[in-house]
Amino acid sequence: MDRPKSRQKKKKKSASTINHGTALFEYGESIAGYRCVTTESEMNRLKQKDESESSSDSEVDIFAFDQVDDADCKLETEERHAEAIRRYWCRTKGEPAVLPLPDTPTLAVASPDIIDEHSVKRFYTMSATLVHAERQDLIRRDRIRWHPDKHRSHKAKVTKLFQVINSLWEQEQERATDPARRRTGV
Fold first, then answer.
1. Whole-model pTM?
2. CA distance to 54, 63, 66, 91, per residue, from 59 (Å)
3. In the 8-state DSSP scheme, what is residue 107?
C-alpha cells in the first residue's frame, strides 16, 4: 500500500551524521555500547588536566587523603553507633534481643567474646548522652532486663552480660554512696 506523498515518513539524520563543523572524539569506557563524545579542544583540556593531576601527586597528598578518609570512616561509625543506640532504647518487645554494645548486635549472632566491661560501659555512657538519661538509671533498667532468669536461650551470653551489667551497677552504687568517688568519677 502506497502512502500519499504528503504522509511519507521522513528519515531523520542521526546525531553522528550531523555535521557540526567540529571534529568529535569518543572517550572513556564503553557503557552499554556507548562512549562519551567531546570536541577536540575539550579532549585536549581533559588530557592536560589528567597529566597535571598525575604529576602533582605526592606522598603528603596521599597521606592527607588517607587521614581524611579515616576521619570520615570514624565519623560514619560513630553516627551508626548513635543510631543503633537510639533504636536499642526505643525497641518493642517483639523485636529480636539486641545486646547493649556500641554496635548493638543481636543476641543470636553475637559471640560471647565481644561482651566485655569496657564495651558495655561505653554503651551506657554513650546512651546517657544520646537519650538524655542518667547512666545509673539505664544500667538499673537493663540489669532487670538482662537477668538470666528472664532468658531461656543463649544462657552463656546472657549470664556473661548480666555479670558485666551487675558489676557496673555495683560500681555506680559505690560511687553514689562514697563522696570521694563521686567527685573523682572513679
1. 0.55
2. 12, 6, 10, 47
3. T
185: left (phi over 0), alpha (psi -120 to 50) or beta: left
Integer-rounded Cα radius of gyration of the chain: 32
Query: Measuring CA to CA, which residue among 110, 119, 120 is closest to residue 156?
Result: 110
Instruction: List the one residue out of 105, 102, 144 whose CA is nearest residue 120.
Output: 102
Confidence band (pLDDT; 50, 70, 90) for 14?
very low
Residue with cell 570514624: 74
The secondary structure of 18-63 as a DSSP string is: S--SS-EEEEEEEETTEEEEEEHHHHHHHHHHHHHHHHH--HHHHH
- 154 grid coordinates: 543463649
DSSP characters over 136-154: HHHHHHHHHHT-GGG-SS-
How many angstroms separate the CA atoms of 157 and 99, rounded? Answer: 10
Nearest to 47 by CA among 28, 30, 20, 24: 28
